[in-house]
Amino acid sequence: MKLASVILDIPTQALDAPYTYAVPEEAGDQPIEVGCAVLVPFGPRQAVGFIIGIEERAEGDWPAGLDPAKLKGIVRAVSRPYFDEEGAACAQWLSERYIAPLSSCVRLFTPPGGVPRMVRAQGGYWRLEEPTVGEVDDRWVVPGPALADFEPRKNAVKQASIAAALERGELRVAELTAEFGAVSSPLKALEKQGVVRIEHRRRMRGMAEGSAGSAPSADSAAVPSFTPSPKPPLTRGQADALAAIDAARSRGAGEVVLVDGVTGSGKTEVYLQAIEETLAAGRTACVLVPEISLTPQTVARFRGRFGDLVAVMHSRMSQGERYDQWDFIRSGAARVVVGARSALFTPLSNLGLIVIDEEHEGSYKQDSAPRYHARDVAVWMARRAGAAVVLGSATPSIEALHACAKNPSWHQVSLPERANGKPLPEVQVVDMAKEFSGGSRSMFALPLARALEEELAAGRKAVLLLNQRGFAKFLLCRECGFVPECPSCSTSLTYHERGNFLICHHCGYRIPTPPVCPECGSPYLKKFGAGTQRVEAELRVLLDEMPGVGPGVPIVRMDADTTSGKGAHQRLLEEFAAADAAVLLGTQMIAKGLDFEDVTLVGVINADTMLKLPDYRASERTFDLVEQVAGRAGRAELPGRVLVQTYEADAPAIRAAAAYDRALFLRDELPKRRLLGYPPYVRMANVLVWSKDEPAVRRVAAELQAALEEAVRDFGGDGWSVLPATPCVLAKLRGTYRWHIVVKCPADADLSDALLPLFRRRKPDRDANVAVDVDPDDLL
After folding, report:
1. Degrees (nearest 5) of the Cα angle 767, 771, 774?
2. Residues 12/101, Cβ–Cβ less than 8 Å
3. Which of 233, 344, 600, 678 could form a disulfide with 673 if both were Cys (CB 3.0 to 4.6 A apart)?
4. By mean pLDDT, which of 39-43, 207-211, 426-430 is the weakest?
């Protein structure tokens, strides 16, 4: 007898173990295999589940704990396999490592919108609802053998029109209908006479005719073959990086190569040539880029080199488009997948290389269950597949740098110079405290205003970054730059308007909001934060008054509001590219992935917003952002310059980024991380508790804290700790109260192994929700 392990498609910890079902002898139309969605009996109703394993068992040789009298059979399969045994193993690993419902982990491997589900119908019974998206079949009309000799009857006007239209080539039925009205009857008549043939062809949504996955035409042999984009000669650094990647891939041990290259050093060309070598070896490649960097420019570079072998997956595509690309990958025709973090879970077979560009980006960490980090998942996959992982960044994460120093399977290669030989742009730090004391009240300091006037009047372009990440307000003295900080935690105190107090969200230290600056007595205490719309309005006034600039110079604003529509991202970038002189104003999405030769000026309007967030990565993120956005200037023949406005001109992160001096930054940052117990010196889990009922959150958080302390005491030793339950930085969100408990352990300890038993046996609380974030990217 065959027994199947089935994960029910019901995302709850209460059902978080595989159920065993008998595989019927007669499978029906769809074979029952690992990776299939199946319909199974579950209590008084039926449910959809996913098969993660099938084993043959002799009668009487039952698995431990299985009562054969209670064994039920699978009703039928309701899909083709979405994943194989390796995908099932990855889902189980994700569930255990990130303490997440197994059904949520399995769901990562299924096609967007392409899974059947059970829904409750009127009357209370359950029914199977078919997937919301699927394949699109187009009917095509193609010439038949009798077309050349066809003589239509005098009154057969539509038949004659269709025959004449076909002389220009094949046509969709939909196109003929749009042109001639109802054509069903004349087409049937023509098909009977052999004048035409009707063919069903798969159409890929969102793809241009003749591109990846589109149906081949009858005369496709006449279409000229694809010509890949030319390969530029490699610099010595690029050649060394490529050699290191090829060596790691050939060893097939899941090794990691960190390509540490300054902006403009040609990391993408290294990826392209490494992928080419991988394809030549008969294997496939997956390229991950941050969602905000997944621009048409990025996709075009990969399609330009590999043509129709490239599939693309990202959230700005419609669900139907993503389904088609997923299916294109499953077909085996796609050999290179480019996408955001979820592209890791597409059905790409024989994986040989995983590239993670801008690996330092926080968007590689999933913020809902399973809360995985793409870098760690990629390394696990590569070890299993005998592949290599390439991490690329101008500002590698501290964790990646630490791994290269400690782990022999991690290798670091440097690209210290731009590929075109041009120098990195000079970075000027503008001390806004001095500007303020000198009488300037504008958010655009005099040096930045002058630079804008000079570059725009000369017909060149500028990029202005409004550093707006985060939500926590903090106070800043505009006279001396003082920011109230916690005496115990070395982080800024968060301003709470309701109650008018400052609080540390790490230890609970709290003081009333001071009426004047405690350092210099100035009454000019600013609650920090300004939106892009306000900045755009003030910038418009500034440009309109500049001689040689004026209203004719467009401001292209890119933020969450202006890029929410489909195709908006591409449209705005095209608008910026088409202008002679223009300003691109935006949030973090413009800091990377943009390559415009005529951008000569980059301005950071407020470098302090991120720097003063109560987050242990605040300094690292500020350093990364300033250095990344600086790289948008002077990428071609024209020299570039960068101005960074800050009230913290002496902050190590600002000074180090302005000097392109990572060593200076790390000398300041690493001792703090070690002293305060943060990665890479420890591993952490952030246990989140939330509810509309504040007393329930307090109660559940206190109970969990006690349970965690007991679990850690039984499992761990030195270096393990459970911090007190406290409100999150954003303590109330959309009417929901939020608390958290932080667990820390040594960097080489198995944190998940200690916490998993507690959360597997814990019954869900009716009054509050609980989630675990293992290896959190922040503690906000």
Report:
1. 160
2. yes
3. 678
4. 207-211
pLDDT of 292-351, one tens digit each? 666 667 888 899 999 989 999 887 788 888 988 999 999 999 999 999 999 999 999 999
Alpha helix segments (H runs only) across 98-149: 102-107
pLDDT digits (tens, 9 = 90+) for 5-57: 999 998 766 667 899 999 998 777 788 999 999 999 998 889 999 999 999 88
Distances in whole angstroms, Cα of residue 481 to Cα of each of 189, 433, 649: 83, 6, 9
Write out pLDDT tens, residues 552-563: 999 998 876 677
Taking only the tens place, the pLDDT of each residue in 153-200 is 888 888 888 888 887 788 878 778 888 888 888 888 898 889 888 887
- Give the model confidence (pLDDT) of 495-526 as tens digits: 765 577 888 766 678 899 899 999 999 988 87
User: Helix (H, G, I), strand (E, B), or coil: what is residue 76?
Assistant: strand
What integer best gives the mean pLDDT of the chain? 87
* Helix or strand (DSSP H, E) at 259: strand 256-261
Question: Are 353 and 275 spatial neighbours (Cβ–Cβ below 8 Å)?
Answer: yes
Identify any residues that bridge with 748 across adjacent strands, giving them in sequence order.
none
3-state DSSP percent of the chain in helix, strand and coil, to 5: 35, 25, 45
Query: What does the angle CA 246 – CA 247 – CA 248 come to, to the nearest 5 degrees?
Result: 90
Q: Counting every residue, how long is the chain?
A: 780
Beta-bridged to residue 77, according to DSSP, are 38
Q: Which tokens belong to 349?
A: 């077979």
Could you tell me what percent of the chain has a pLDDT over 70?
92
Distance in angstroms (rounded) separating the CA atoms of residues 174 and 170: 12
CA 388/CA 352 separation, integer angstroms: 6
Pseudo-torsion of CA 709, 714, 718, 720, nearest 10°?
Answer: -40
In the prediction, which pLDDT does 225 show? 63
Which residue's structure tokens are 């009487």? 60
Tens of pLDDT, residues 123-138: 778 888 888 787 776 7
DSSP 40: E
C-alpha to C-alpha distance for 267 and 357, rounded to whole angstroms: 9
Answer yes or no: are the C-beta atoms of 403 and 410 closer than 8 Å.
yes
3-state SS, 637-678, equals: CCCCEEEEEECCCCCHHHHHHHCCCHHHHHHHHHHHHHHHCC
Bridge-based pairing of strands 126-129 and 426-431 is unpaired
Measured in whole angstroms, how far is the alpha carbon of residue 329 from the centre of its chain?
19
Reduced to 3 states, what is the DSSP secondary structure of residue 514? Answer: coil
- Residue 76: name the closest of 126, 22, 113, 118 by CA: 22
CA 688 from centre of chain: 22
What is the token pair recorded at 738? 């939020």
User: Across the strands, what pairs with 200?
Assistant: 139
Q: How crowded is residue 319: how many other Cβ atoms within 10 Å of its Cβ?
A: 14
Q: Which of 45, 48, 33, 42 is nearest to 107 (CA)?
A: 48
Give the C-alpha distances (Å, rounded to integers) separating 158 from 151, 186, 618.
13, 7, 70
User: Which regions of 121-186 does DSSP assign to beta strands (E)?
Assistant: 126-129, 136-143, 171-172
Task: In whole angstroms, give the CA distance from residue 744 to residue 616.
Answer: 14
Contact status, residue 634 vs residue 641, Cβ threshold 8 Å: yes
Contact in structure between 170 and 141 (CB atoms under 8 Å): yes
Q: Say how far apart CA 267 and CA 271 lie, in whole Å.
A: 6
Geometric angle at alpha carbon 541, from 540 and 543, rounded to 5°: 65
Structure tokens at 704: 């969990």
| Nearest in space to 395 (alpha carbons), one of 80, 215, 620, 717 | 620
- In this structure, what token pair is assigned to residue 181? 């009205």
**Are β-strands 501-503 and 494-496 bridged in parallel, bridged antiparallel, or unpaired?**
antiparallel
Q: Of 584, 663, 638, 662, which Cα lies nearest the Cα of 394?
A: 662
Q: What is the mean pLDDT of residues 561-582?
A: 82
State CA 656 to chain mean position distance: 28
pTM for this model (two decimals): 0.83
Please identify which residue in the block is written with the tokens 């000198």. Answer: 438
